[in-house]
Amino acid sequence: EKGGYDYFMLKEIAEQPKAVADTLLGRIDASGTLSLDEVRIPASVLREVDKVVVVACGTAYHAGLIAKLAIEHWTRIPCETELASEFRYRDPILDQRTLVVAISQSGETMDTLMALRHAREQGAKVLAICNTNGSTIPRESDAVLYTHAGPEVAVASTKAFLTQLVACYLVALYLGQVRGTKWGDEIRAVIRELSEAEAAVERVLETMEPVRALARSLAEKNTVLFLGRHVGYPVALEGALKLKELAYMHAEGFAAGELKHGPIALIEQDLPVVVVVPSPRGRSVLHDKIVSNIQEIRARGARTIVIAEEGDEAVVPYADHLVRIPVTPTLLQPLVATVPLQVFACELATARGNEVDQPRNLAKSVTVE
Ligand code: M6R
């Protein structure tokens, strides 16, 4: 059932190109227009939405942080992303014009379920993004956009995350399409790029051997830090979460702009720091700032593991290890940038003799608080 792989996690990492393609299937028509008929919330209601709130836990929350950037950029609707466990215990301001997006692989996560009940009680419409047909979260939502990752067995989420990203992009682009924002041309171009994502993820998977070797060489380390900005920040958080749950290592993700506000004090000789570098095109200011961050931490002895686009030469002098990812539009970069971090964590777990598919103390779906 592991299809020749030692662990479900390895199988699920390898299945990602197909999972991405399956989640896009039938949702982009020949003219490059999105048709999400299954989202039964009428276009007239979506046009009235004046606020989006995304709720989720763990890895799904990281997808939600990226959704916020995509939704605000392509729709200009204010969007907040919140941990479901925090949201449900405060007094969020919601009404009939709020769209709540609940993201969950299992569809059974108690905190996310309670958050969506809380939202519906206040009249908000809830759209679930879910991987499990007929599970509780989609049943209790107004509408659902299913991810088609297929069953995910390993506790650490991989292919479900990539398909959650795809679903979040589809929702953001669809909202933009329905509401007709000034980004019409960009939206059409990104829809085209999204349909090429399968090939881009495949390309990343083909180049992972050096990442595995690097992971094995770090098996004795205690700490790994992850830095990113903009979409790279949630990717950094996701890389750190994977390492905690699989390798049982101290791992933390930071927004690179926060370095000087504290975390830079942690940098010491030979500390591995993974840096997710934004595209030098698009938001080039951020790119240049990250390159300075890499210089700063390296000058203080960090061992820099740099994830950067093909053709980005500015990072080369400061990268102790360079991992190349395909060129993508800025907002889609997490689809390719996350994959090396999954492989890295899985290999480190193996090198440390940990149980990859069933890490200690964790359950695949968290149906209690
Ligand atoms: O089933 P869900 O997507 O609602 O699960 C949410 C989290 O429990 C889950 O993503 C968890 O963080 C994973 N083990 C991360 O790899």
From TrEMBL:
GO molecular function, one term: glutamine-fructose-6-phosphate transaminase (isomerizing) activity
Substrates-to-products reaction catalysed: D-fructose 6-phosphate + L-glutamine = D-glucosamine 6-phosphate + L-glutamate
The SIS domain, residue ranges: 42-181, 214-359
Active site location: K364
EC number: 2.6.1.16
Domain of life per record: Bacteria
Alphabetical UniProt keywords: Aminotransferase, Cytoplasm, Glutamine amidotransferase, Repeat, Transferase
Record's subcellular location: Cytoplasm
Signal peptide: none
Binding partners and assembly: Homodimer.
Summary of the function given for this chain in its UniProt record: Catalyzes the first step in hexosamine metabolism, converting fructose-6P into glucosamine-6P using glutamine as a nitrogen source.
Stated name of the protein: Glutamine--fructose-6-phosphate aminotransferase [isomerizing]
Organism: Streptomyces antimicrobicus
Entire-sequence positions represented here: 247 to 615 of 615
